[in-house]
């Protein structure tokens, strides 16, 4: 092709042009008719991990992005939409998987638009690409991340990280508004024997049963979570000492009257608990230390009971 029909590199290098394109979050790159990359946007850097200086001047068929389709076919070698558009001038859109610099595959939608000279000769093309996530997919992925961060993966109730955040928040409410709260620290009695006598799967089933039992027998505005191993923590808001002790007793009675059936045999457990109200002079740490002392008192006094502070 005559050089007079070559893509104007000066235009692409113009700072106003580059500033405008770099404001686009999608990936954008421009090639000439030989598929040499002339421009690589900030969006392209973010999506692919490749910096502009690593890419500009090379050819897109040098396996930088290494597009593949659902079957794993390498499109840079055969069926490249950009190459086809440079030949026939037809706009194209494809869903592909590009190669990120880190090695992973990123699902993107690719759109290729030809660039024509005044006499309608094809002198280059613009390819834009964006991550191929629908709103529903994004919502699902956000939910998964939230669950990973805040849910115990075995029992599907709150994990320790969430409980610690909740304790901090509810204690601030006590200091600011005077809203009383309390905690119940619960431990399954002789849980090690369950695993020893019936196996790890039986132990996991007991933990799941306990999580379900407690979740279904508390007020909707209270929080239950797995604190550590076979220990659970209840955080009860807007509660007095009598109500808090009553909740702990109800959970204890329901537990001793429940069972997990392993090959038709009922496996039963009991719980011990420590119950205490939060005080303004408390920290979350001091509150939990007091609850732990009360729990150990229940254990040493024969198990299957609830101990509470009387002040």
Short key terms for the protein model shown above:
311 residues; alpha+beta; Beta-Lactamase; Alpha-Beta Plaits; 2 domains; 5-stranded antiparallel β-sheet; elongated
Description:
- There is one protein chain.
- With 311 residues, this protein is an alpha+beta fold.
- It has two domains: 3-132, PAS domain (Beta-Lactamase, 2-Layer Sandwich), CATH 3.30.450.20; 141-308, Alpha-Beta Plaits (2-Layer Sandwich), CATH 3.30.70.270.
- 40% of the residues lie in helices and 25% in strands.
- It has eleven helices and twelve strands.
- It has helices spanning 9-13, 15-22, 42-48, 52-55, 81-88, 135-150, 160-177, 191-198, 200-215, 241-256, 284-300; strands at residues 27-32, 37-40, 92-99, 105-116, 122-131, 181-188, 223-228, 231-237, 260-262, 265-267, 271-277, 306-308.
- The strands form three sheets. The protein has a five-stranded antiparallel β-sheet with strand order 2-1-5-4-3. Strands 7-8-6-11-12 form a five-stranded mixed β-sheet, with helices on both faces. Strands 9-10 form a two-stranded antiparallel ribbon.
- Helix 8 packs across helix 9 (200-215).
- The protein starts with 8 loop residues before the first helix and ends with a strand.
- The model has no long low-confidence stretch (mean pLDDT 85).
Low-confidence stretches: none
Count of helix runs: 11
CATH architecture call of the largest domain: 2-Layer Sandwich
**Estimated helix fraction:** 25-40%
Give the overall average pLDDT: 85
Helix and strand sequence: HHEEHHHEEEHHEHHEEHEEEHE
Beta percentage is: 15-25%
> Could you tell me the radius of gyration in angstroms?
31 Å
CATH-defined superfamily of the largest domain: Reverse transcriptase/Diguanylate cyclase domain
Per DSSP E runs of 2 or more residues, the count of β-strands stands at 12
Structural class comes to: alpha+beta
Tell me the number of structural domains.
2
